[in-house]
Amino acid sequence: MADESQTNDTNPASPVTARSFDAFVGPHLPVLLRVAGSLCRNPHDAEDLVQDTLIRAFNGLDDFDGAYPRAWLLTIMRNANINRHRRQRPGLLHDATDLANEADRRNPPAPSAEDVAAAQAPAPWIADALGRLSPRHLQVVQLIDVDGLTYDEAAAALGIPAGTVMSRLHRARHRMRAHLARHPDFRSQHR
Amino acid sequence: MTPHAMLDMFRRKGGSRCIEIGRQIQTYLDGGLDPTSAAKVSSHLHACRRCGLTAEDYRRLKSALAETSTPMPAEPLQRLQALAADLAAGDTAT
């Protein structure tokens, strides 16, 4: 098992076997959960989405050529998210379990003390600049500048061309910079 | 000085080069330029104070945004890793 995981971790072009699935996917879980958080805006939904993604990825291993694993997983996540949105439309709720699950999603439990301690509030000036972005611009800034995705990976997660990701990102940063030009806390960093 | 006069002065001082570099600064900072183009941008940023300060703005912005990233809570990651292990072991119906 250890040999299998080493092989798959060090050679991204090698096929992934079912038995080495956990070793293959493990390093990508933090990014998947982070991106799911950007797509869902709800920790419970985000975890559910990553679970769906893992199951779909496991079932689709035979079709995976081993190249660009993170982009492959993010594409699966995008498709899973689209299906979840279709399923979760209020008109499609059928029974008490669905209603209870929907209530849980709308009222997630409060974060633990550890979560609160781990979370660092952004500087007010950066939070203010982020708050002025449109949802589409905020999304690409979140995925690339906060979550650390490449243009191609963000494109896979959003289902749009990488060129569109880049133009949205550059426009978003340009607007943030224009807004922050008047902000003393931003200017004082290097002027 | 009017904005129009400033633009004229900017152009006389080689501003068209600055405009061209300005379009590439963000891609350069993201590591998206080929080595030759990156070297040209780097050279210009060292020589031109105006463009250098623009690049410094974007560096500062990117750095501040990266700092807003928070560590993932451990419990969800552990549950997801356990699911992946169950799938690998054939313990989960798919």
Summarize the structure.
The complex is a heterodimer of chains A (191) and B (94). Chain A is 68% helix and 0% strand.
Task: Give an overview in words.
The complex is a heterodimer of chains A (191) and B (94). Chain A contains 12 helices and no strands. Chain A has helices at 2-10, 21-25, 29-40, 43-59, 69-87, 96-106, 113-118, 124-131, 135-146, 151-158, 162-180, 184-187. In chain A, helix 5 packs parallel to helix 10 (151-158). The longest helix of chain A has 19 residues, at 69-87. The radius of gyration of chain A is 19 Å and the shape is elongated. Chain A starts with a helix and ends with a helix. The model of chain A is unreliable at 1-14 and 91-119 (pLDDT under 50). With 94 residues, chain B is mainly α. In chain B, helix 2 (15-29) runs parallel beside helix 4 and helix 3 (35-47) packs across helix 4. Chain B starts with a helix and ends in a 5-residue tail after the last helix. Chain A binds chain B through residues 18-23, 25-26, 29-30, 32-34, 43, 46-47, 50-51, 54-55, 58-59, 111-112, 114-115, 118-120, 122-123, 126-127, 130, 141, 144-148, 151, 166, 169-170, 173, 176-177, 180-181, 186, 189-190, and chain B through 26-27, 30, 32, 53, 56-58, 60-62, 64-77, 79-81, 83-85, 87-90, 92, 94.
